[in-house]
Amino acid sequence: MTSSAELSPELMLGEYLSSANRFLALAREHGDDLGATAVPSCPAWRAKDLLAHVTGIAAHVTSGRDMGPDVQAWIDGEVAARSGRTVGAIVAEWEDALPRLAAALRGQPVGGLVIDVVTHEHDLRGALGAADHEQGLAAVLPALVDHVTELAPLRDGRGVRLLGGTTVCTFGGPEIGLEADVGDEWELFRLLACRRSAEELEAYPRQGDVRLLFDLVSRYPLPERPLGERAR
């Protein structure tokens, strides 16, 4: 895995724009069918809602408006505000916002935006049966590792060490309370993005207290059942 220190703001902004354009291409291809397409990794939303969410984020960045104290309420409001629009209209809004977003954020840290858009790109791919596990992975994984590290959600000061292909990352410590082998970098990304069920967390080969792994991905509800996206 490329270290986060090697990912300049310019490179990360380019990764955001690349993911946005892949997302837009899928949206154009499927059109208003997205409104009826379930998203297993985000069961409260249809695929059109994913598009509305990432478009709302871009519109927010370019407007300079504050999200307010309740971020989830803001997210829900942005999705609801676009519920009556066609997919084509939402696509056009996001396309229009991208040049202004790039100008506003040039030279600024955009790791959070990359995490959001690449994660939802793969949520969309999973919903559409268009999996491509390489897209955006080299940028989103180190950004996500940094993000989870900053959250420090672990109990009792015990750390977690995760092995994912050639990547080894440690959260918390210095005492390691759990070491788990999740398989590869793709699996590590989706795990840290809270896209793995309790059943899948329990199934990773491990040594130590699996409760620490649940703590690590506790910021969002986990899927109720496996998403079926692990095989390459």
Textual characterization of the structure:
This protein has 232 residues and is an alpha+beta fold. The chain folds into two domains: 4-128; 152-216, no CATH class. It has nine helices and four strands; from the N terminus they run ααααααβββααβα. It has helices at residues 9-30, 47-63, 71-81, 87-105, 111-128, 137-151, 185-192, 198-203, 211-216; strands at residues 159-164, 167-171, 176-183, 206-208. Strand 1 and strand 2 (167-171) form a beta hairpin. The longest helix is centred in the N-terminal third of the chain and has 22 residues, at 9-30.
The tally of structural domains comes to 2
Q: Which stretches are low in confidence, meaning pLDDT under 50 for 5 or more residues running?
A: none
Name the overall outline: globular
Helix coverage percent: 40-55%
Order of helices and strands: HHHHHHEEEHHEH
* Radius of gyration, CA atoms, in whole angstroms: 18 Å
Number of helices: 9
- Termini separation: 18 Å
Overall strand count: 4
